[in-house]
Amino acid sequence: MKRLLLPLLLLAAGPALAEELWQGRSAAFFGITFLDTSTEGEMNGVRADEVARLEMVERQASEAMRAHGMTLLDLAPVEEVLDRIRNPAKCNGCDLRMAETLGADYAVVGEVQKISNLILALNLYVKDVETGRQIRGQAVDIRGNTDESWQRGMRYILERSIFR
């Protein structure tokens, strides 16, 4: 009986422990970088629908972070540095340094890589500023370059990894 009780208690405490991770904490959300490695992007340039989708999933992630009790910090104090960085998700720790400058508990970065109009990869990562370690994050491949596929991919990451 004791062997069954401990796992049940841990399962019941899981959601509370996950919420403690976010409640009252601050995050520097550096947005989501769009990386177009498709031939289409090279030939045709930036597409307005993809820019709109990027803004849509950034908003989706921001709203979820706020809904789980996090405060998203204003990036204005590090804007000059951020403007010089192509991809905060891959900048040798610049995301952590900027987040530390802002006094954030977490640095949050993301990417969407378009391989083709059918295959895209969506990533979102949360790093603890104090330790520099990634505490949550996931990459998912999505099929189809539509509002629905992008939203579904972000929802999956948020529900299955970030706020599990």
Short description:
By secondary structure, this protein is α/β, with parallel strands linked by helices.
Task: Characterize the structure shown.
The chain is an alpha/beta fold. The protein contains six helices and five strands. It has helices at 2-22, 39-44, 48-67, 79-83, 94-102, 147-162; strands at residues 26-36, 71-72, 106-114, 119-128, 134-143. Strands 2-1-3-4-5 form a five-stranded mixed beta sheet. A hairpin with a 5-residue loop joins strand 4 and strand 5. Helix 3 (48-67) runs parallel beside helix 6. Residues 8-17 have low confidence and may be disordered.
Low-pLDDT segments, ≥5 res:
8-17
Return Rg in Å.
17 Å
- Placed side by side, the strands forming the largest sheet appear as 2-1-3-4-5
Estimate percent helicity.
Answer: 40-55%
Structural class based on helices, strands and sheet pairing: alpha/beta
Number of strands: 5
Mean pLDDT: 90
Order of helices and strands: HEHHEHHEEEH
| Total DSSP helices | 6
Distance between the termini: 27 Å
The biggest beta sheet reads: 5 strands, mixed
What is this structure's SSE topology?
Blueprint: H1 2-22, E1 26-36, H2 39-44, H3 48-67, E2 71-72, H4 79-83, H5 94-102, E3 106-114, E4 119-128, E5 134-143, H6 147-162
Parallel strand pairs: 1-2, 1-3
Antiparallel strand pairs: 3-4, 4-5
Helix pairs in contact: 3-6
